[in-house]
Amino acid sequence: MQEKENKILAPIKGRVRMYLKAKGIKLKDFLEETGISMSNYKARHSEFGGEAIAQILSSYVDISPFWLILGRGDMLQAPLIEIGNIRGDNNVYRDNVLSAGASHADDIVKLQGEHIQRLEEQIAYLMKIIEKRDEQIDILVSALANSNNKQK
C-alpha cells in the first residue's frame, strides 16, 4: 500500500503544468488551443491519452516530446531554423539573395555560392536534429514496448 501512495500520479499532466507555468500560459488558453476538457485535465488519477498528447505537441511545438512523455532531457527543444522562401520559379532563395543590385553574372554566381554554403550549413544542422530525433524515437518506442510488456 505504501508503494502505491508514493507513486507519482499522472506525470505527463504534471509536466504539462510545469510547462504552462514556465511559459506563462493560462490554463484556459491551453485548454482551448488543445481541445482538452477541464475534467480530463483535472483528473488526478488518469493520464492524457495519445490523442491529447499529440494535440499538445502539435499546438506547442517548442515542448520536447521526449521530456513530456518520459520526463528526461530538456523541457524545450531548439527551434528549427528558417530555410528560406520559395518563390514562384520553384527555386529556394534566402531573402535578397538575388537583389536588384546583383545584375551581373559574376555577382549572381558569387551570391549563389554564398547561398549554397548557407544551405549546406543548414543541412548539416538539420541532419544533427534528425539524428537526435531518431534516438529519441528509439527510446520512446522501447519505453512503450516495455510498458506494454508490463501490462500483459
**Structural class of the helix and strand makeup?**
mainly alpha
Q: For the record, give the distance between the C-alpha atoms at the N and C termini, rounded to a whole number.
A: 22 Å
Order of adjacent strands in the largest pleated sheet: 1-2
The string of secondary-structure elements, in order, is: HHHHHHEEH
How is the CATH topology of the largest domain named? 434 Repressor (Amino-terminal Domain)
What general outline do the C-alpha atoms trace?
elongated
Strand runs, count: 2
CATH architecture of the largest domain: Orthogonal Bundle
Protein name: HTH cro/C1-type domain-containing protein
Structure description:
It comes from Porphyromonas catoniae F0037. This is HTH cro/C1-type domain-containing protein. This protein is an all-alpha fold and 152 residues long. It folds into 2 domains: 1-77, 434 Repressor (Amino-terminal Domain) (Orthogonal Bundle); 80-152. 62% of the residues lie in helices and 3% in strands. It has helices spanning 2-6, 11-23, 27-34, 38-42, 50-59, 65-70, 105-151, and strands at residues 85-86, 92-93. A hairpin with a 5-residue loop joins strand 1 and strand 2 (92-93). The protein starts with a helix and ends with a helix. Mean pLDDT is 79; it is low at 1-6, 86-90 and 96-102.
